[in-house]
């Protein structure tokens, strides 16, 4: 009964937030709220420009702050006066009530302790070891994409690849992978927001199922450790990780690493298909060009569009006084289009000089720990597509996801050959 009450309170919270966004966005002209509405999801970049034009740090109708300024975003992300506890308003907050987000939702010293445990598994050297697996999996998925000339790249490759890599990294036994992938994909979709009562119910069922699967896997790897991330976590001496921290940690890796990578692949292919000159340049030199295309995609159309930070004490930012307990929405996608940091920012140009770092992976202590893996997966897919299907092109207009947080194509239909 109390579980039902929690669930209904949770769903009511989502509804309330939706209404608040609609009221503030449509009736009160609040640009930050508009980003959560259809208009903002379709083209957030126009709204980011308006936020930036209003000032480097702008008050919202809800009493929070918002910024699309590259320097301000970077400063806040690196500033010790800010922490990661969520605001009272965001949909992300509703998720945080439902799912613990492990060290992404923690400040030091707990953040440092848990991040250090997974970092060795996701560092560049370790990740390079996954290169052959990623290449084999990409080729297998392309081979199995079906006989027709037209395929949905999201369903055929961009979705299954990150999941297959994650299963390998976690050390999920072969006979459990289908069950894991099914539940993990639903749980991973939580990052995209909760769209309906049905979605919320599916999410709850999938997270219970995933919890059961992970609990079995923790027990298996405690008895029979192998060379994988779960074994590494379950054999830690006392004090490094509490048993209750295990499940949130692996869930974080799933949620943070799945939809993000899926949409990086989708956004990169989409950008290339609508900029045929860039696609031709990639096909002429797939190995040499893929890194630059991925980096430019991360700047131009990043999968994670926003982050947020809570002021832990009174602090001065961009000439404004931010009080302790006040929240700043950091529009990462807007920071990446700040003309001060990136000349001609609306132009997709993989050849642009890399003098300023984009914020697609944030910055500061929460800088994405999975970025080497995400880059490797995405560059491998682009390279193999360019090598195998240089004649491919867009087969249908693209439908975007409906989330303001994660940006990417819902489906991406391509013709393999013209
Ligand atoms: C294109 C793909 C990805 C993008 C755009 C992305 C983006 C981000 C961003 C923006 C943050 C910071 C969030 C914040 O500070 O509020 C973050 C953190 C994080 N990401 Fe990623 N991510 C990607 C892939 C991955 C992958 C593949 C993994 C794991 C396998 C991963 C695991 C994490 C974790 C664990 C954190 C929390 C780091 C911390 O709190 O110290 N991410 N990511």
From TrEMBL:
Name this protein carries in UniProt: Cytochrome P450
Organism (species): Paractinoplanes hotanensis
Family: Belongs to the cytochrome P450 family.
SUPFAM superfamilies according to UniProt: Cytochrome P450
Domain of life of the source: Bacteria
Pfam families named in the record: p450
Entries under InterPro entries matching the protein: Cyt_P450 (IPR001128), Cyt_P450_B (IPR002397), Cyt_P450_sf (IPR036396)
């Amino acid at each position: 009964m109390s579980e039902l009450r929690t669930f209904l309170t949770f769903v009511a919270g989502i509804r309330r937030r939706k209404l608040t966004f609609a009221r503030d966005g449509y009736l009160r002209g609040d640009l930050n709220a508009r980003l959560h509405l259809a208009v903002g999801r379709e083209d957030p970049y126009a709204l980011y420009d308006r936020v930036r034009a209003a000032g480097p740090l702008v008050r919202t109708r809800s009493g929070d702050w918002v910024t699309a300024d590259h320097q301000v975003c970077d400063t806040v992300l690196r500033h010790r006066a800010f922490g990661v506890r969520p605001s009272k308003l965001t949909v992300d907050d509703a998720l945080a009530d439902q799912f613990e987000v492990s060290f992404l939702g923690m400040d030091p010293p707990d953040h440092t302790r848990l991040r250090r445990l997974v970092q060795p598994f996701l560092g560049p050297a370790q990740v390079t070891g996954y290169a052959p697996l990623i290449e084999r999996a990409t080729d297998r998925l392309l081979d199995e994409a079906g006989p027709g000339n037209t395929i949905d790249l999201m369903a055929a490759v961009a979705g299954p690849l990150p999941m297959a890599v994650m299963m390998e990294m976690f050390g999920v036994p072969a006979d459990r992978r289908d069950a894991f992938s099914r539940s993990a994909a639903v749980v991973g979709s939580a990052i995209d927001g909760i769209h309906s009562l049905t979605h919320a119910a599916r999410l709850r069922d999938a997270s219970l199922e995933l919890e059961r699967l992970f609990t079995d896997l923790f027990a298996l790897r405690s008895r029979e450790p192998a060379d994988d991330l779960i074994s590494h976590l379950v054999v830690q001496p006392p004090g490094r990780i509490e048993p209750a921290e295990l499940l949130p940690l692996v869930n974080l890796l799933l949620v943070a690493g799945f939809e993000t990578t899926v949409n990086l692949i989708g956004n990169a292919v989409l950008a290339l298909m609508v900029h045929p000159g860039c696609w031709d340049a990639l096909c002429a030199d797939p190995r040499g060009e893929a890194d630059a295309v991925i980096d430019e995609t991360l700047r131009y159309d990043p999968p994670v569009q926003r982050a947020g930070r809570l002021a832990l004490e009174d602090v001065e930012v961009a000439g404004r006084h931010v009080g302790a307990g006040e929240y700043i929405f950091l529009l990462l996608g807007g920071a990446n289009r700040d003309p001060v940091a990136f000349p001609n920012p609306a132009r997709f140009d993989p050849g642009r000089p890399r003098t300023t770092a984009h914020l697609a992976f944030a910055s500061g202590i929460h800088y994405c720990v999975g970025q080497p893996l995400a880059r490797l997966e995405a560059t491998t897919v682009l390279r193999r597509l360019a090598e195998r299907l240089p004649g491919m092109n867009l087969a249908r207009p693209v439908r975007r996801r409906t989330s303001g947080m994660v940006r990417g194509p819902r489906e991406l239909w391509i013709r393999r050959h013209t």
